[in-house]
Amino acid sequence: SALALTPKASAPVYCATKAGLRSFTTALRYQARSACPQVAVTECVMALVDTDMTRGRGRGKITPEQAARALLDGLQKNRRVIWVGQTKLFSMIHRVAPSLAARIVRGG
After folding, report:
1. What are residue 44's DSSP bridge partners?
2. Rounded to whole angstroms, how far apart are CA atoms 103 and 59?
């Protein structure tokens, strides 16, 4: 989830777990490169998917089928980080203007 990049006020624990998982995945990828280069560690940064958990929340959701297709496409292309939906755009905003990214997500 893009909430690994910047948290929102209503879900501090959820956001923290996403940030921790992102950090863990990156560190694991570093270890695998030197210790066992035949193992690929891939991170998927998922957009908001229309599921029971997200029902009634958020907008601009993608379908589970779109999410699965994006993940499989990224794996086929051997991507180490797979940005799904608008998460790539959000990551660029976060990189260039972190305070703007925080304002976008903070109250969501």
Report:
1. 82
2. 16
Q: To 10 degrees, the CA torsion angle through 70, 74, 32, 21? A: -20
| pLDDT tens profile 31-76 | 999 999 999 999 999 998 998 988 887 778 899 999 999 999 999 9
Question: What is the model's pLDDT at position 108?
Answer: 65
Q: Give the DSSP per-residue string, the chain.
A: -GGGTS--TT-HHHHHHHHHHHHHHHHHHHHHHHH-TT----EEE---B-STTTTTS-SS-B-HHHHHHHHHHHHHTT-SEEE-TTHHHHHHHHHH-HHHHHHHHHT-
* CB neighbour list of residue 9: distance below 8 Å, 6 or more residues apart: 106, 107
Amino acid at 37: P
Q: How many CB atoms lie within 10 A of CB 32?
A: 14
Distance CA 84, CA 91 (A): 11
